[in-house]
């Protein structure tokens, strides 16, 4: 058996990833990168679930992680389709150009 | 059951008018006229019937009651009842209702069906307000009359109608919601005290509320009523609404809608929170006096005929506030008289403003003048109405104002003296009105028709009632006497109670007991024998 | 039996009013005249009938009364529509109906050319009704009805020729100024009600001596409040300014309302409520003081006017000042006597002046009249009689007897003193001066304007009747050193107390001689100034101090200007700056605030996704920090 | 036991099966009309299966789901909304350029997701339900893919939803870490003895609130609402406003009650402030808005605020008032969007306020229906909205929450203005730009109008005689 890594450290990593993801979403202008950053956040959450599952020695955390993966995949597929349309319409992936509706 | 029929009649008539209006333009008028007249005749016959009893034996306070469960989980019932005050105001409602239909006979030319629908539904809402003895139901009717009124102003009003309609609606709605909070407050306090959760007016009368809570709840009620009346800092919706509304709208606003505020104070604020009412009485009277003078000064400066009349209403409503919070029979009778006479005289002035607008296509006083030459009949009626408005003895308004002032004099000498000075201002603006419109050199050279026969009927009925009320108001006084007496009794005892309350001493059990006793006397004792 | 006919006195003109008001447009002039003048004449005849009956068999309790119906009944306040006729009201009713009828008859011819013939008679009839109710009222509320009713009619008739805005202004001024007094009076009624629990005049008068002490504050306050009402109606200081302007109305109106009857309502009120005044020496003094000051001030103003009707108006104010003086002196009967005599000669003067004005094609300016002595002989002679009475020409005129009585009491009565007497005497001198001036300017000298109309019989006969009374009505009350006849005061002493004289006063004759002297002096002075040496007058007028004085007097001692600055301007100013209602601004402010907030918030809805994400994150941080902090 | 499970889950199974069935039907190249009718039938079937499932009293399917009266009630509401949206969709999509058939598949999936939310009692099911709903919505929002607004709305929603889901998930993970369970009840039990919440749990809860708050579109997570409402096809907007919010609110309610969140002051404070701010800002934002869809978006922010206010006292009456108001809100908002759908044209959604000018004089019936809906949203008596607000106020005052009640009153007064603005536009002079009747599909037009009319009658019925609905709500009340 490997020496168990302290749960706090894993959570810290997860938290770090999560914040990284947030920052990524905020500062990136390219839609694809925003999507990517969101994926990072989702994975951070997944990591947290796994850590929590291991703390309670339950499979639930890992189950949840698999669901998250599936959902992320679905999301990305829809997202990419939309991004294609956007590129088709705007010839750009700059999110700041998508401001037609406001007020 | 008559009470339910009355409301049903109006609502049904309204729907019928709306439907008939789709394919015929004159049918809705006749439907509306028939509906309101039927109601009027019903009520009048009942009143005459009752007045016989009134003169012979000691009259019972409550004349008729109808009750049916509505939302029983909340203790809400469809509970209508009338006493003299309600009856009188109902008669007034239907009387002015007939006139409202008549005065829009020619004025309204499009969407006639919808117009009369709104008109009748306003009347239904107002009638409901005057009859409801369940606080929820009261609030319900209180709001029901707003929407059609909003449409009436917003669709058939003059140039600035939308602004006026919004203003009217938002003012009344805001204050109404505060009242709803207060209603709920008293509901839960009563419920938690007695375990009987109910909106029934008669049961809530006996509820014990801690003085400081009662004060806030009373303010909740007062806000709604004071905005409706309106009393001075809350009056600013009124000139706009009155001046933009079509004639019938102004008539109903001035004649009836404002009266619901006064009715609310008499029916709910005073009996439910006698102690708190006592506390605020000096301030309320002060507001009333400020209203009298402020309204009069503003009325003087207006150049728009209908705005001028609207501000006179503000001034006259100040008298009502003054009278109500004097808490004695003289003043309260005066208040009721003022309700009736102001409705008639100001309503008539608005009708006249409408007639002038029809003829001259303007409400601007600066463009009028010298109309007497062409319209002596209208001029004479206008003078009579202006005299009523300035409180000339022999006309109903004088008796109202004199009684109010006489009663208020007992309660507060200096405020009454100030209020009496309002009579001077009322002379100033009334005479200015006459001068600007009818006297002076004629500015209008086109031939103008004097009264038509329809208009003569309209005016004559109003003028005769105002003279009748000025010379022999006893029927009105007799009708409301039981109600007023009960109110006054409440305050005769409450006076000690309030005094103790102000001094923050422990309330003695004796006066409190008396209060409870009187409060329960307000509840119909053997109404069942009187239910018809 | 006569009790039951009482209601008919006001009922005749009331019916007349109703008929004329409703169908006046469709009636011919003939029928209008019949109804208008006829109804009042019927009242007059009925009054004579009832009056004779009253005099011949005075009822035991000294009055007739008739309750028509209970006006209303609230709590303990039960005013009734009750008519009450005693000696005092009989005098007034007589004057109102009798002179009223004469003036109505005169008006039939005078107003003949006017297009609003029916309206005129309707208003006049309504006035007579109101005035009758005022004097016949059994309670103060009904009196107040009449009181305000006459105010309304006065308003309507002053502004009768409504096309001219200045007439309308005069009418409103009259109404509003009298209303100020009325308001004070209304407050007086409130006080009386709470003191006595009733507004019935006989009850109050009966209760007062037992309820109130002499000189108590409440008594004085009440008396002064009532007095304020009287001062407004009777155009006494400081509310006198409306009456000269009120001359804008037709001359018969001025004669009936603004000379003979309505303006003396204040006198009636004080006399009616004399018990209260008797209990308050201060109030008594104020009444006398107001009367004295008014008679002097108005006398000076009358001296400077050029409009014949304004002279008469100021003279009316001045003469009512005499009546108030008499009331203040406790010379109740003297006041009422002067009222009656004044009603005769002043109505006469106004009607005659009206005839002159009409004859000269609506010329009001006396300086453009002149020489009418021969052209309008009837007018001249009647006017002369009236003037003699006004100037109190000794022995032969009725005015002498009534005024002399007041002068005598100013000296001799309990409340009298030298100052008051001197003022009254000087007033008499002024009266003589301005009366003579008026007479000279109008009827002597050269004709400056041609006569275009000649008065008809319908106009001259009433003048003659009035002239008769102006000369001979004085003989029913003669001084005790000169015939000693007290028919009039005997009658009134049923109601009003006797005048108490100071102990040990003698020499009435001396005072009478002094009064005569003053009168003749005045006449002579006027003769010098405006007939013999008019250029001297002109010169005097131009001299520096006098011209200012002249203007000051001419403008009615600057009261109008003072009121304009102190009262009218501020109110108008406040009204005009606040036309759009400051309070409304507050609500508009709320609305504007909401709109601003809306704009600011809309700005956050920028459409930028990254902005939204930042919003989300900020929200998350906020929530987390709230949790951390708490 | 197993049979019972099937009975209990029958609505979910039916919905899932329907989506597959519709997919197959599409493969058969059936017409739009057939598919519409088929899906209508399937919705009705799913709805009626609720009555079948109703016989079971509180049937848990361990560990994820529970079918009890409350969840049945919410499911009923969701499926009902789906049904209405389904009916109204035909006339909207038929004239659009996109083939509308796949739309129905997504509709079923989203409804399924919302229903799963309603029955979930576990984080996993919560997450699953939420994602089924959300992913489906991406497709629905961007359905008219040739249109800029649709795509823009789609991508905005996608990124924001995924972003907020991450918050939700991270929060769940933290709570799981703290309590060792993902089942609501067990979480609640582990907190039972505590008087204040542990910080980890609090943080987790806070993050979860971000996710939930986003879905409910309450301030400060509201900014997407207007854009998505405006960009999405109108039936989808109606769907978001009702189904998605209803499902999320149901799960929030269940979670809150299971962990008995009303005990914790901090939590309540956060909820109260969210509610208060939502009411005020939502109404303020709509004040001068000229786009009707955006107005309704902002108004829905405020209405979610009202619903949260209703939730705050946590008493029986408050839960009843939440349910009552939810029903009222759903019916009302569907009616409003129904009108928008009927008035939309091929090119334009009827979302410009100017185009409503004089509507009353052209289509009195539609204008009346719309007015009733707006008045109900404004909370004017005679309409159900008033009774709903009344109940909320009553619940608050009963528990002594005067402040929230007061703010509710004030904000609804502000809100009054923009509802009135639309109404007075409809009743003002003749004119108006577009708004022609859809002559092309008379049957569906008629059906739609009849449906809206029925809904309107319900609004008025609940407004004048609310006892029935009150009993109903009390019967299906949580626990």
Biggest sheet statistics of chain C: 2 strands, antiparallel
Mean pLDDT of chain C: 86
Most extensive interface, chain pair and sizes: B-C, 56 and 54 residues
Assembly state here? heterotetramer
Task: Provide the CATH topology of the domain at 30-91 in chain A.
Answer: Helix Hairpins
Arithmetic mean pLDDT of chain A:
89
Radius of gyration of chain C: 30 Å
For the terminal residues of chain C, how far apart are their CA atoms?
96 Å
The total strand number of chain A stands at 0
**CATH architecture classification of the domain at 30-91 in chain A:** Orthogonal Bundle
Q: Give me the side-by-side strand order of the main sheet of chain C.
A: 1-2
Describe this structure in words.
- The complex is a heterotetramer of chains A (103), B (532), C (630) and D (479).
- Chain A is mainly α.
- Chain A has helices at residues 7-27, 31-56, 60-90.
- The longest helix of chain A has 31 residues, at 60-90.
- The N and C termini of chain A lie far apart (59 Å).
- Mean pLDDT of chain B is 85; it is low at 496-532.
- The longest helix of chain B is centred in the middle third of the chain and has 34 residues, at 161-194.
- With 532 residues, chain B is mostly helical.
- Chain B has one domain (2-524).
- Chain B has a two-stranded antiparallel ribbon with strand order 1-2.
- Chain C has 630 residues and is mostly helical.
- Among the domains of chain C are: 284-532, no CATH class; 580-629.
- Chain C has 27 helices and four strands.
- In chain C, strands 1-2 form a two-stranded antiparallel sheet.
- In chain C, a hairpin with a 6-residue loop joins strand 3 (477-478) and strand 4 (485-486).
- The longest helix of chain C has 32 residues, at 165-196.
- Chain D is mainly α.
- Chain D has 19 helices and two strands.
- The model of chain D has no long low-confidence stretch (mean pLDDT 89).
- At the B-C interface, helix 12, helix 14, helix 15, helix 16 and helix 17 of B face helix 5, helix 6, helix 25 and helix 26 of C.
- Chain D: This is NADH-quinone oxidoreductase subunit N.
- Chain D: InterPro entries: NADH-Q_OxRdtase_suN/2 (IPR010096), ND/Mrp_TM (IPR001750).
- Chain D: The chain crosses the membrane at residues 6-28, 35-52, 72-91, 103-120, 126-145, 157-177, 197-224, 236-257, 269-288, 295-312, 324-343, 364-387, 399-420, 441-465.
- Chain D: One of its GO terms (cellular component) is plasma membrane.
């Amino acid at each position: 058996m490997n020496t168990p890594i302290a749960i706090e450290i894993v959570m810290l990593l997860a938290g770090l990833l999560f914040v990284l993801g947030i920052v990524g979403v905020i500062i990136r202008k390219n839609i694809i990168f925003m999507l990517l950053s969101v994926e990072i956040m989702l994975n951070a959450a997944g990591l947290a679930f796994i850590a929590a599952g291991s703390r309670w020695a339950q499979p639930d955390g890992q189950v949840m992680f698999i669901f998250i993966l599936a959902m992320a995949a679905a999301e990305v597929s829809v997202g990419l389709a939309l991004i294609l349309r956007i590129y088709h319409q705007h010839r750009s992936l700059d999110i700041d150009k998508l401001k037609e509706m406001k007020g | 059951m008559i009470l339910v029929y009355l409301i049903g009649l109006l609502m049904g008539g309204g729907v019928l008018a709306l439907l008939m209006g789709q394919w015929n333009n004159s049918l809705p008028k006749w439907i509306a006229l028939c509906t309101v007249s039927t109601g009027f005749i019903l009520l009048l016959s009942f009143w005459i019937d009752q007045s016989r009893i009134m003169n012979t034996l000691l009259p019972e306070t409550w004349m008729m009651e109808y009750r049916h469960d509505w939302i029983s989980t909340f203790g809400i019932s469809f509970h209508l009842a009338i006493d003299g005050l309600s009856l009188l105001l109902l008669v007034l409602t239907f009387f002015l209702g007939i006139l409202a239909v008549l005065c829009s006979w020619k004025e309204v030319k499009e969407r006639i069906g919808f117009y009369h629908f709104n008109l009748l539904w306003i009347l239904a809402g107002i009638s409901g307000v005057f009859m409801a003895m369940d606080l929820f139901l009261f609030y319900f009717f209180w709001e029901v009359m707003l929407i059609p009124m909003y449409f009436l102003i917003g669709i058939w009003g003059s140039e600035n109608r939308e602004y006026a309609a919004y203003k009217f609606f938002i003012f009344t709605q805001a204050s109404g919601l505060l009242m709803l909070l207060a209603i709920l407050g008293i509901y839960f306090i009563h419920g938690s005290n007695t375990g009987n959760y109910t909106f029934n007016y008669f049961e809530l009368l006996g509820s014990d509320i801690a003085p400081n809570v009662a004060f806030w709840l009373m303010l909740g009620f007062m806000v709604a009523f004071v905005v409706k009346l309106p009393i001075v800092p809350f009056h600013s919706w009124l000139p706009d609404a009155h001046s933009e509304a079509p004639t019938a709208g102004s008539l109903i606003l001035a004649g009836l809608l404002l009266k619901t505020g006064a009715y609310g104070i008499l029916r709910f604020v005073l009996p439910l929170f006698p102690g708190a009412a006592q506390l605020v009485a000096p301030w309320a009277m002060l507001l009333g006096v400020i209203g009298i003078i402020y309204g009069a000064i503003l009325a003087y400066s207006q150049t728009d005929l209908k705005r001028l009349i609207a501000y006179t209403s503000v001034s006259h409503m100040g008298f009502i506030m003054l009278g109500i919070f004097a808490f004695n029979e003289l003043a309260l009778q005066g208040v009721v008289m003022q309700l009736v006479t102001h409705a008639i005289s100001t309503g008539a002035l608005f009708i006249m403003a409408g007639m002038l607008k029809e003829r001259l296509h303007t409400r601007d006083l600066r463009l009028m003048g010298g109309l007497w030459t062409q319209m002596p009949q209208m001029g004479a009626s206008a003078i009579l109405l202006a005299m009523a408005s300035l409180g000339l003895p022999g006309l109903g308004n004088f008796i109202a104002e004199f009684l109010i002032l006489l009663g208020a004099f007992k309660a507060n000498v200096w405020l009454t003296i100030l209020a009496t000075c309002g009579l001077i201002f009322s002379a100033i603006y009334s005479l200015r009105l006459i001068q600007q419109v009818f006297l002076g050199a004629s500015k209008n050279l086109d031939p103008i028709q004097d009264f038509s026969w329809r208009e003569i009927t309209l005016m004559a009925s109003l003028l005769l009632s105002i003279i009748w009320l000025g010379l022999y108001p006893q029927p009105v006084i007799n009708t409301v006497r039981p109600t007023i007496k009960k109110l006054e009794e409440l305050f005769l005892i409450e006076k000690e109670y309030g005094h103790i309350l102000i001094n923050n001493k422990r309330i003695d059990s004796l006066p409190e007991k008396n209060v409870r006793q009187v409060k329960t006397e307000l509840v119909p004792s053997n109404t069942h024998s009187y239910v018809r | 039996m006569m009790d039951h006919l009482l209601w008919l006195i006001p009922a005749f003109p009331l019916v007349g009013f109703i008929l004329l008001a409703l169908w006046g447009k469709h009636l011919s002039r003939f029928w209008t005249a019949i109804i208008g003048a006829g109804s009042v004449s019927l009242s007059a005849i009925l009054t004579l009938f009832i009056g004779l009956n009253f005099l011949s068999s005075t009822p035991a309790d000294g009055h007739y009364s008739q309750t028509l119906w209970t006006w209303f009944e609230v709590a303990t306040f039960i005013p009734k529509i009750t008519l009450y006729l005693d000696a005092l009201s009989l005098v007034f009713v007589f004057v109102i109906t009798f002179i009223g009828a004469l003036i109505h008859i005169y008006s039939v011819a005078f107003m003949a050319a006017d297009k609003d013939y029916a309206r005129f008679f309707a208003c006049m009839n309504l006035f007579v009704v109101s005035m009758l109710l005022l004097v016949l009222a059994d309670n103060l509320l009904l009196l107040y009805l009449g009181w305000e009713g006459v105010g309304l009619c006065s308003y309507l008739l002053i502004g009768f020729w409504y096309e001219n805005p200045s007439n309308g202004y005069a009418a409103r001024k009259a109404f509003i100024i009298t209303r100020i007094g009325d308001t004070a009076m209304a407050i007086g009624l409130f006080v009386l009600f709470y003191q006595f629990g009733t507004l019935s005049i006989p009850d109050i008068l009966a209760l007062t001596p037992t309820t109130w002490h002499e000189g108590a504050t409440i008594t004085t306050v009440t008396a002064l409040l009532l007095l304020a009402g009287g001062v407004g109606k009777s155009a006494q200081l400081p509310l006198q300014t409306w009456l000269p302007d009120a001359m804008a109305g037709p001359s018969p109106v001025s004669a009936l309302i603004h000379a003979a009857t309505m303006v003396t309502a204040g006198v009636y009120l004080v006399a009616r409520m004399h018990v209260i005044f008797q209990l308050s020496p201060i109030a008594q003094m104020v009444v006398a003081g107001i009367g004295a000051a008014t008679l002097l001030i108005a006398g000076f103003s009358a001296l400077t006017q050029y409009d014949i009707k304004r002279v008469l108006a100021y003279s009316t104010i001045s003469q009512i000042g005499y009546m108030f003086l008499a009331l203040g002196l406790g010379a109740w009967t003297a006041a009422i006597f002067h009222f009656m005599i004044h009603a005769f000669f002043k109505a006469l003067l106004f009607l005659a002046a009206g005839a002159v004005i009409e004859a000269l094609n609506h010329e009001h300016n006396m300086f453009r009249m002149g020489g009418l002595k021969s052209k309008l002989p009837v007018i001249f002679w009647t006017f002369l009689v009236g003037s003699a009475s006004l100037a109190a020409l000794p022995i032969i005129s009725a005015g002498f007897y009534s005024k002399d009585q007041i002068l005598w009491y100013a000296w001799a009565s309990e409340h009298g003193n030298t100052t008051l007497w001197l003022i009254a005497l000087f007033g008499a001198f002024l009266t003589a001066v301005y009366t003579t001036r008026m007479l000279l300017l109008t009827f002597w000298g050269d004709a400056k304007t041609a006569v275009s109309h000649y008065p008809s019989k319908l106009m001259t006969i009433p003048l003659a009747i009035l002239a008769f009374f102006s000369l001979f009505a004085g003989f029913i009350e003669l001084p005790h050193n000169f015939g000693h006849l007290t028919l009039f005061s005997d009658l009134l002493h049923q109601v009003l107390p006797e005048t108490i004289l100071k102990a040990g006063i003698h020499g009435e004759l001396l005072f009478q001689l002094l009064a005569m002297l003053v009168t003749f002096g005045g006449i002579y002075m006027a003769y010098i100034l405006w007939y013999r040496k008019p250029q001297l007058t002109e010169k005097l007028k131009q001299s520096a101090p006098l011209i200012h004085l002249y203007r000051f007097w001419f403008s009615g001692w600057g009261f109008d200007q003072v009121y304009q600055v102190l009262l009218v301007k501020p109110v108008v100013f406040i009204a005009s700056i606040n036309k759009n209602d400051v309070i409304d601004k507050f609500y508009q402010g709320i609305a504007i605030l909401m709109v601003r907030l809306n704009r600011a918030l809309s700005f956050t809805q920028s459409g930028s996704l990254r902005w939204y994400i930042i919003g989300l994150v900020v929200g998350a941080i906020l929530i987390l920090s709230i949790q951390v902090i708490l | 036991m197993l049979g019972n499970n099937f009975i209990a889950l029958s609505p979910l199974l039916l919905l899932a099966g329907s989506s597959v069935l519709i997919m197959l039907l599409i493969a058969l190249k059936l017409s739009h009309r057939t598919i519409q009718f088929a899906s209508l039938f399937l919705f009705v079937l799913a709805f009626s299966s609720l009555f079948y499932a109703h016989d079971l009293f509180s049937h848990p399917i361990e560990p994820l789901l529970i079918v009890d009266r409350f969840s049945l009630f919410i499911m009923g509401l969701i499926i009902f909304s789906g049904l209405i949206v389904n009916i109204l969709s035909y006339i909207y999509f038929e004239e659009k350029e996109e083939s509308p058939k796949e739309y129905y598949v997504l509709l079923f999936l989203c409804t399924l997701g919302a229903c799963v939310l309603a029955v979930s009692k576990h984080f996993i099911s919560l997450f699953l339900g939420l994602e089924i709903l959300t992913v489906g919505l991406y497709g629905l929002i961007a359905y008219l893919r040739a249109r800029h607004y649709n795509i823009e709305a789609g991508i905005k929603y996608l990124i924001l939803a995924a972003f907020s889901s991450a918050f939700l998930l991270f929060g769940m993970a933290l709570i799981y870490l703290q309590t060792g369970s993902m089942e609501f009840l067990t979480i609640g039990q582990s907190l039972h003895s505590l008087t204040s919440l542990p910080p980890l749990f609090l943080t987790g809860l806070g993050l979860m609130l971000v996710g939930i708050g986003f879905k409910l579109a309450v301030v400060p997570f509201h900014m997407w609402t207007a854009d998505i409402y405006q960009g999405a096809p109108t039936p989808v907007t109606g769907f978001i406003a009702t189904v998605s919010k209803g499902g999320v609110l149901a799960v929030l309610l269940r979670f809150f009650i299971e962990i008995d969140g009303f005990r914790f002051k901090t939590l309540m404070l956060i909820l109260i402030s969210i509610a208060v701010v939502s009411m005020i800002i939502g109404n303020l934002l709509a004040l001068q808005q000229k786009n009707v869809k955006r107005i309704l978006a902002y108004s829905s922010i405020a209405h979610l605020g009202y619903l949260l206010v209703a939730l705050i006292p946590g008493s029986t009456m408050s839960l009843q008032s939440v349910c009552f108001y939810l029903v009222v809100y759903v019916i009302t908002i569907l009616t409003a969007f129904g009108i928008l759908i009927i008035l939309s044209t091929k090119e334009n959604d009827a979302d410009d306020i100017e185009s409503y000018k004089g509507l009353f004089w052209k289509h009195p019936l539609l204008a009346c229906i719309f007015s009733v809906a707006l008045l109900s949203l404004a909370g004017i008596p005679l309409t159900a909205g008033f009774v709903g607000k009344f109940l909320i106020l009553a619940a608050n005052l009963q528990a002594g929450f005067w402040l929230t009640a007061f703010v509710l009153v004030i904000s609804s007064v502000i809100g009054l203005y923009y509802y009135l603005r639309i109404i007075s536009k409809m009743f003002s002079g003749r004119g108006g730009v577009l708004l022609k009747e859809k002559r092309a599909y008379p049957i569906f037009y008629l059906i739609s109008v009849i449906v809206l009319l029925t809904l309107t009658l319900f609004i008025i019925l609940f407004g004048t005689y609310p006892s029935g609905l009150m009993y109903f709500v009390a019967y299906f009340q949580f626990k």
